[in-house]
Every structure is written in structure tokens, then in C-alpha cells.
Amino acid sequence: MGNLHATTRSAVIAVLTLSLIAASAGTAALAEPGSGVGPTSSAESSAEPTIEAEPPSPTESASATVPPTPPAEPEPARQEAPPTSPPGEGGSPEDAVSTQVASAEAVAVYRFWSDTFQSHFYTLDVAERDSVIANYPKSVWQYEGAKFGAYQSQVAGTIPVYRFWSQVHNAHYYTASEDEKNHVIAAYPVDVWQYERVAFYAYGTQDALAQTQVMAQFWSPTFWNHFYSSDPAEIDKVKAVYPAHIWTFEGDAFRVPISYAPAAPLPPSGQVASDQAAAVYRFWSDTFQSHFYTLDVAERDSVIANYPKSVWQYEGAKFGAYQSQVAGTIPVYRFWSQVHNAHYYTASEDEKNHVIAAYPVDVWQYERVAFYAYGTQDALAQTQVMAQFWSPTFWNHFYSSDPAEIDKVKAVYPAHIWTFEGDAFRVPISYAPAAPLPTGGLSTVLAATLGGLSGKYSVSVRDLGGTRSTVDIGGETMQEPVSVIKVFVAYAVLDRVDLGRLTLATRTRSGVTVQDCLRVIIQVSDNYCHWDLVALVGEQALNDQFWAEGYRGTVYAGRSGGGTYYPAKLSTTDDLALLLSRLYRGELLSPAMSEHLIALLETQYWRSKLPSGVAAGVPVGNKTGSAWTADGWFHSDAGVVSSVGGTYAIAVLGSRGATAAGVRAIGRVVYEHYNGPIATAASYSSLNAVTAAPTTFYRHASTSAPLGTIPAGVRLEVYASARTWYQVVYNGRYVYVRMSALLDAIAYPRSAR
């Protein structure tokens, strides 16, 4: 039976082939099955017939000046009845013949591959193809050419192939099944599978039409998209190379015509100067909720070297642009806002002039041309559009050419966070590779210093000058800040004084005033007043304020270990350095309250750490801290150094045996980075207070009987405190005196305010 079927199939092929050749020669030729044209033996039954055309006559080939005679009109070809199967045999699908395939109406279907999304995209829309080529880099959509033919509108016998798009999977999904289409629409939300339209029309698989080919269908359970191919070699390779979780063969999806119109010409490349384009680098600030763009490599390296990731997180090269103007490009202007801590970009000359005229320089200060790009009016090939978003909340722009990123921003963020404004400008798809990242600088020196110290340290340094540069090592690490966190509470309380919710005379739950509690938590690091002030403001209110103002690593988490006054808490050196830099720049409090807190910091009693790591006479406003754990004592400190070489905030949080000497050594390295070697280091006596008059002293705070009197003018070491009672060392004994009985015994260097 197999030989009979094979002979019949070969004979039919011969009939069709001879008919086509004869028609091209101007005559209608017919061949009967079994007439000698097809194979005559079982050994030859699978071979295709060989047709040898007669060579042209010498006259025809040599007659270049005589136009050829038009061919005679072909005679109508007789319709042959389709071959029948032998008696008792059903017809094989391979035996079916149809002359109804509308090859003349078929057009090319173009295929793209995305290395980014791990998916294919199919379209027969030439405008859509050209738009994808023009607007997406090859890493997002790589054009692979015309891969098969299909129909733009329905012709007899065809069925629609439907197309969906997924924002979740960043992929298209295709199906020729009406039931499957309806199921997907009903079962999935639009962000998972959004029905778009009929992609094209093709034939079903139930009829093996001649002049058509089957499209093999694969499904990726990993990337949630289909892959189609009619190329046997490609199909075999996918089956052989990829495991089932990457590409699972599902069978034949539909049939498409073998012949179709040639692929449309690709769009012209235009005059895009890709060889002159440089990388534009992007940063994200979790602190300021804004992006920063620069193609200046030195500026990029300075930001990376001098800012912690919480302030400016480097995101890499995101698109290409031009450092100087090339033909057809326009400038993209850059502004900086001290008020909003953000940059603002515009490609509009009118908008640039309006911003300069309408806003004071502290709101929007024009800086320079950020880079040059193409306008949106010309859809140049080899360029891509940059989508523009505006944040009414944070007052800055966000730009992206990444379709997945654009779709995510549109889908996830409400309009008050990111509002899509349209296409801003066009940039070249190809550009020079990103410059190597920097090494060295203060970060390197600090890392080397930390490597030689006992204990563990996190460090952040923030320049308060024009660059506002920052360096950090472990700056984002949330850890126990010990008493250093009290500067956060002091700020929050004084902020409420500015707002009129509290006054300095407000009494805490213990009866001690806000003013006195602020003094003792900063100057002598009192724990009781610290907890009183936390209770006065409220832990949740503190946490909400810290989060809203960008201190994302600072939090109070209730009392620790069942204690009555000591709160569990976390912070980061990045947060501490940011708070102190804002305080000294006058960005947190009114001038009066700023000066009040800075005065407390610059007259803080315990000065063996950061204040002793600078040159003599240099003002340092700091808040120190230490604690005892199973690993022993560990020390921390944070402050602002006002030196000739620059004013900077520095925060050092220690753990696992970090020492006061280690904190001091870190402070000295940073100071010498700004100012050079120290000739004479600052040194402070541990005798930090002096009695103003004869002073009664007690064994315990407030409740014990007097033990005696300390004469006036005696210098004492304040060792600890219990709210407004100070524990001092007198004649080798630890005793208590009233805070009001003591004066500062240290000549504190004060910064010029």
C-alpha cells in the first residue's frame, strides 16, 4: 500500500510541476499518472521526477536586437480529477490537493527576537516592523527577517490568529483557537494577557493544502510565550537543544502559504551619527526620589566615589547621546533645584526660557546642556524614542527607552508619582561602550584603614560644600546606633517646637522640661530623658517622620530586653550623615532651633573619639555612644567637622569590639583627606565640668541623704546621668550632683554660624 500511495503522490507532483513549466513556455501540458513521467518501480517511488528543460536555440540566445515574440495565450488547462485511494483505503491527508490557496494575496510575516524578554514577536504590518526597528535596540528586539507568509484580511478557508500582550511577562501570545482566545480573555487580567487584535489569517491544520506548510508551535513554561517556525532545521534544533521547560513542542499550530509577496524594503538608516554617540549614565536617589543623567565620565565617577547608594545609586549606561551638537540634533537642558534636591531636563527651548524666567535659582538653577539628541518629529532609523514621565510629588523627570520599564512605570505608579507625558526626544540606538568604573579615592583609604582596626565599623562621610559628595563603607547597614540616635530624637522634638506643637518649657512625663531633656541627652547622653522624649513624640510618629524624610534605615522598635527606659532601635551611617548635613545647612529647623541643637552638639562632654581625631582648635559638633554586649564594649560617634579644608558630616557606627581609638583613627583619616597631615591633634581633658558654687553631693539621684559639699571651682568628670542628676567622680567616689550646679569646664571650639 505504501508504494501505491508514494507513486500516486509523485505522479501528482509531476503533473503540477509539468503544468507550471508548460504554462511558462506558453503551452498547456498534461501528464497522466503512470505515463512514464513518475516513478515506475517501488525502488524509485519516493524520488522526485527530474525535468530537464531544452536549451534555448542559438538564434534566440544571439538575437539581442530582436525583441522576443510574445508567447501564445495558453490553452485552458483541463481539471484532472484528484487521484483516489485504492479500494478499501481511506484517503491520506498527504494525498489531498487544493488549488484554492490564495498565494497572490499572502504577505510576509516578520519576526523579531528579544534577548531581553526571551520571546519572539511576529507582525505583517510593515509600519509596525519599521517602528520596532527604528525605536528599539537589538538587545530588546532583534529583527530576524520575513519568516513566513500569511494574510492581512480573511480569504476563503482561513482562520484568524489572535494576538495578546502581557505587561507581566513582557511577551506576546498567539493562538489560532477561538476557544483558547475566549478562555484567556475571561481567565486573565489585562496586565497578564491583554487581547490586542488579529495578528494575521492562516489556514487550519485539518486540511493539508498543497502550496502550504505547517507552522510548528513551541511553548515556553519559563517565559510564557509561543515560538513558531516552518523551518525543519530550526524545528529540529529547538527540539534537540532546549529542555522542555524552555521550549516544549506542542504540535502544528496552523498552515501558511509557501509563496507570498516579497518582504518590504527596510527603512533607510538616515544620517544618525552613531559613531559619535557616547553613553549616558543614570543614577537613582532613594533619598531624593529622583534620577540623575550625565554623559560626563568624570562627573559619573565623582558621584560614584562620593555619594552613598542611598543618595545616588549608579544604574549604568542607559542610552546614547552626543556631547557636542551633530547634524539634526537639539540640546537637552539641565537644571538643579536646592529646594527639591533634583535635576530637571527639557529639550524645549521655550520651556528652558520659561523656567529661567519664572523660578528663583534656589528652585531651578540652570546648569548647562546635559547632552544633544534628536527631536521627535523625525522617526529616524537607528534611533529610539525616550519616554518622559513627570512627578508632581517630587518635581523631576524620568526618562526611559526600555519598553518593559516604561510599561511597569505606567502600570505600577499612580499619576501623582509618575505621569506619562509622551516622547521627549530620540537617541541613537548604538553608542560607544560605557567607560570603566573608577577606583581609589577616600573610599580606598578608608577601606585600608578599617582593615587594620580591631572591631567592625560602618562609615559615611558627606561633604557640606558645593559638591555634596559622599563616601560610605557599609553606609546602608542597619545596626544598633547606641546613643548616637539621640540626635534624631532631638531634631524631631525641635521640629515640633518650630511647628508650635511643643515648647522648650513643655514638661515630659517625668516632669523634666523639653529644654533640660534635650541638654542632657546630647551633652551627657542621658538615657532616661531620651526615653521620655521618645514617649512624648511617640515611636510611630518618629518612624513615620524618619521614613517620609528619607531616613529609611532609622527606626524605633519598642523597648529592649524588658527594660524600663532603653528603646530598641536601628539606624545607618548614611542616615546619620544626611541628618547632620541637613542640620548644618539649615535645611531642617528654623535658624533659632538649628543654633540651639548645634550648640548642644558642639559642647558635648565626651570628646575622645571624633573631636580628638582633628587638629587642635577645629570645631566638631558630635553625638557619641557606646554599649556593652557579650563581645565587650563597642563605640560609635557622629558629627560635623568645620575645617579649613571643608565642612563635612561623618558618622561611624561600631560593633563587635569597635574601640574609641578606632573611631578616632577613622575620623583622623577623613580629616587629613580634607586638610592634609595634622600638626597638633586636638586633646580634651576628661574633667569636663566645674562646680559653679559650693555643691551638695549625694550617693544616689534625688532620693538619698546628702553626703557632703564640693567646693566651688572644682573640676569634675561627669560619668553618667539620671535626667537632671549628674554622676561625677569626686575624691575617687561616684556621687550625684544637680545639673544646675555645674558649668562647662572645656573651652569648646565653636563653628562660625
UniProtKB/TrEMBL annotation:
Record carries keyword ATP-binding: no
Signal among keywords: yes
DUF5648 domain span: 98-202, 216-373
Residues covered by region (Disordered): 30-99
Bias kind Low complexity: ranges: 39-66
Domain of life: Bacteria
Leader sequence segment: 1-31
Any one GO molecular-function label of the UniProt entry: beta-lactamase activity
InterPro entries: Beta-lactam/transpept-like, Beta-lactam_cat, Beta-lactam_class-A, DUF5648
Matches recorded under Gene3D superfamilies: DD-peptidase/beta-lactamase superfamily (3.40.710.10), SH3 Domains (2.30.30.40)
GO BP terms: beta-lactam antibiotic catabolic process; response to antibiotic
Domain Beta-lactamase class A catalytic: 458-653
Keywords: Signal
Protein name: Beta-lactamase class A
Source organism of this protein record: Microcella alkalica
